[in-house]
Amino acid sequence: MEAITRPAPAKINLALDILRPRPDGYHEMRMVMQSVSLCDTVTLAEAETGFSLDTGGSFRPEGEKTLEQRAAEAFFQELGRPCPPLAVRLEKVTPAYAGLGGGSADVAALLHLLRQRYAPELPLEALERIGLTVGSDVPFCVRGGAALAEGRGEILTDLPSLPHCRIVICKPDVSLSTGEMFARARGRIFQTRPDVDGMAEALRAGRLERVTKRLCNVFEEVLPPEVKEEIQGLKAALLRCGAMNAAMSGSGPAVFGIFSSEEEAAAAAETLGAWCRQTFLTRPLERAESMAV
Ligand code: C5P
Fold first, then answer.
1. pTM of the prediction?
2. Residue 32: in which H helix or E strand, if any?
3. Which residue's CA lies nearest to atom 20 of ligand 1?
4. Would you please indicate which residues are annotated as catalytic (active-site) residues?
5. How far is the CA of 111 from the CAs of 38, 51, 77, 143, in angstroms?
6. HSE of 29 in the Cβ direction (CA atoms, 13 Å)?
7. Of all helices (H) and strands (E), which one includes residue 46?
8. Who contacts 239 (Cβ-Cβ below 8 Å, separation ≥6)?
9. Which of 68, 70, 103, 209 has its CA 20 to 30 A from that of 201?
10. Per-residue confidence (pLDDT) for residue 61, from 0 to 100
11. According to the model, what pLDDT value does residue 145 have?
């Protein structure tokens, strides 16, 4: 079998609200998510034996089955067929453990590749359902574009993508665990909650300034103090460089700023890149672009 390849776009959260803890240990969420042009690349080939994952040196917890292997097994279980020997290769660009959905995007791209090769008739909804068994953000990454995400993140309502703009993403050199961030948020009463419906309406109206006015992520209220300072510093720097607004993405620590001007965004990425090594100049993706093979 010839190897097949697909980009795996990262996501940002334009709005992120945590409603309440659920009996199953997860939290009920309301989020507006947007795919961006920051991408890993995932390649799938058939192998001689077993399941191999070449991460290009990026970290994977030892002794655990990888998310990719779990996704492939769940995919073939859905088809009622044994999982063939597979070799998966990732070319990582998106920082991991950053709140940018890098790991989820890789799994989603792998599911698309498996569908393309083994079950082109399988509906997208089935792919999203399989993705949810591996991670809460995978269904959105399978779908791409922009969406309101509710429940654990799997109840998706399509939205138009952000109007023309540039997004500068900065990933500071600190790590935050998603599980720990949810634990810090558990039972908390947040001072500022996002206007999630207003954000969805702003996208439907195609009004960039209404979107940027409403950027809000409740995880920013539960950051450990030493990280909070760094995040606030990066947001302030993005604003000084001309961003219309800035926020943290997901459970962090990546921060993004939205710019109406391509030139200002490019200049900001250069300025901030001198301070924050992992700085990326990106743009929003339409659903059709994020799905393009
Ligand atoms: O679904 P995923 O494996 O990405 O979630 C990682 C952790 O984040 C979960 O174990 C859970 O502690 C927390 N989480 C949550 N509520 C969600 C999504 C994730 O509490 N909606």
1. 0.96
2. strand 27-46
3. 26
4. 11, 137
5. 19, 15, 13, 11
6. 26
7. strand 27-46
8. 245, 246, 257
9. 103
10. 66
11. 98
